[in-house]
Specification:
The chain has helices at residues 41-60, 63-79, 81-91, 96-120, 149-162, 177-189, 203-212, 225-236, 260-272, 292-303, 324-339, 374-377, 393-401, 416-423, 457-462; strands spanning 2-3, 7-9, 12-14, 21-25, 32-37, 124-127, 130-136, 139-143, 166-170, 196-198, 218-222, 241-245, 251-254, 284-288, 343-346, 364-367, 384-390, 405-406, 410-412, 432-433, 447-448, 451-452, 465-471. The protein is an alpha/beta fold. A seven-stranded mixed beta sheet has the order 15-16-17-14-13-19-20, with helices on both faces. A six-stranded mixed beta sheet has the order 10-9-8-11-12-22, with helices on both faces. It has a three-stranded mixed beta sheet with strand order 1-5-4, with no helix packed on it. It is globular and about 65 Å long. The termini are far apart. The chain binds NADPH dihydro-nicotinamide-adenine-dinucleotide phosphate. NADPH dihydro-nicotinamide-adenine-dinucleotide phosphate binds at residues 143-147, 152, 170, 172-173, 202-204, 207-208, 211, 222-224, 227, 230-231, 245-248, 279, 379, 381, 407, 446, 450-451.
Amino acid sequence: MIDRDKLYIDGAWVPSTGTSTIDVINSTTEEVMGKIPEGTAEDVDKAVAAAKKAFPAWAKTSVEERGKFIQRITEGLQARMGDIAQVVAQEVGMPLNLSTMIQAGLPVMTFGSIQQILSTFEFEETIGNSLVVKEPVGVVGAITPWNYPLHQIALKVAPALAAGNTVVLKPSEVAPLNAFILADVIDEVGLPAGVFNLVTGVGPVVGEAIAKHPDVDMVSFTGSTRAGKRVAELGAQSVKRIALELGGKSPNIILDDADLSKAVPAGVGGAFLNSGQTCTALTRMIVPRSKLAEVEQLAVQAAETYTPGDPFEATTRLGPLVSAAQQERVRNYINKGVEEGAKLLTGGPEQPEGLDKGYFVRPTVFSDVRNDMTIAQEEIFGPVLSIIPVDSEEEAIEVANDTIYGLAGAVWAGEKDKAQEVARQIRTGMVDVNGGGFNPMAPFGGFKQSGRGREAGKYGLEEFLQTKSMQL
Ligand code: NDP
C-alpha cells in the first residue's frame, strides 16, 4: 500500500487544504494499492503563487545551470526505473518488461534528450537590425492522462523546466503514484522552491482551476478530445497559450503489393500495444478487398498470440485495461460493433477464460467494418482492431482521412517510395512508412481534433518558448 498524503508545493511536501483522498486501484487485482490527496482549487492557487514567485529567478538561470538540474533529474529517474516500472505495471496494467522499457525508460530518455538539445539549441538569432530571442512562457500548467503516465509528464515537465518556465503538474487521478516518484527525485536534486509543483486531484476541480487561473501563462494538456476542448475554452478567457495532445483513430493503409506477412502482424501490434490504450494506436486497418481473406487469417493468427494475463508474468503480452470504467466502455464498443453488423473474427465482450479478476478485455478483431460505423469513428482505447476493406488506393486514402482525428497513421507498400507518396496524403501529424520505428526525438502531435502543438525533441522545447524581437 503506497500512501502519499501530501502535495508538493513551493519546495516542500504539504497537506492539501481539503480532507478527501483518492484510492488508486491495481488494475489486475482490483484492490486498492495506494492513496493520494484529492487536491482543491485553493491548493492550485498556492501552487500557482509559488510558481509565479519562482519564475523570474529561474528564467534568468543560465542554460548550463538548467541543463545540470535536468541531468540530475535524469539520473534520479534512472536510479528509480525499477520502482517506476513496477508501479505503472500495477496502476495501468502494462506487462512488466514493456513497462520497464516504455513507462520507465521513455521518461529517462526524454529528460536526457532535452539536456542534449539544450546544449545546441539556438536561443537567439539576428534578423536585419533585430535580435530575436526565445524566452520562457512563464507559469506552465501541465495536465496529463493515465495511459503512459510518466512519459506524458516528462514530455511536458522536462522541456518546460529546461526552457526556464515554472510548472504546476496535475497528473491523472487513475495512475498518479509515478508522478510522486518524479516529485521525490526533483526534491532530492534541490530544484529551487516553487519551480516544480505537484497538485493531485480530479480534472473538473484541479484541472479546471489550472486551466482558468489568470496567473497560469500556458496549459499543456494531454488527454481526451472532450476534456481538451474544455481546457481550451477555459484557457481562452485569459488568452493563455494552450497546447493539446488529444485522441486518435489512426489509419493503417496496406496497399495490394505490400508484404502482408509483415504488415498485418505489425499492424495488430500497433493496435494492441498497452492493451490498445495508446493515443497513436493503429485501430483502422484499411486493406484491398481482394486481399481481405488473407488479411483476416493473418490478423486472427497475430491477435491470438496476445494472451491476456498478469502483467507480472514473463509470458504475458496483454495486460488488463486500467479501470472498471474503461473495461465497461470497451465492452460496450465491442457490442456496438456486432450490433452495427461488423464481422467479429476473434475476441468479444466476455471476460477472458481463467481470469476472474482484473479489468481484462479479449484481444478483438472485427472485419467488414464500414468507416461510418461507430467502432471506426470513435476512439475505443482497448484491444479492438477494425479491418476496413476498400477497392482502390484513392478510396483507402479517402477512408483514412474520413475522421475528426489526425494523430497518427501508417502505410505499407511494396516500395518505400510508393508508401511515402501515400503517407504525404494522410492528414495526420505522424505516419509510419513500411514499419518505420518509433523515434522519441521526432515531433509528436496531431492534426485536426487530435490537437495543437508538438511535443518531444527540439519541437517539444520550442513549444515552451515565446519569441521576442529587439530592434537595435
Ligand atoms: P481525460 O481527458 O479524461 O483526462 C486527461 C487529464 O485531464 C486527466 O488528468 C484528467 O483528470 C484531466 N481532466 C479531465 N476533465 C478535465 C476538465 N474538465 N478540465 C481539466 N482537466 C480535466 O483522458 P484520459 O486520462 O482518459 O486519457 C485517455 C485519453 O488521452 C485518450 O483520449 C487518448 O487518446 C488521450 N491521449 C493523447 C495523447 C496524445 O499525445 N495525443 C497521448 C496519450 C493519451 P482526472 O485525473 O480526473 O481523470
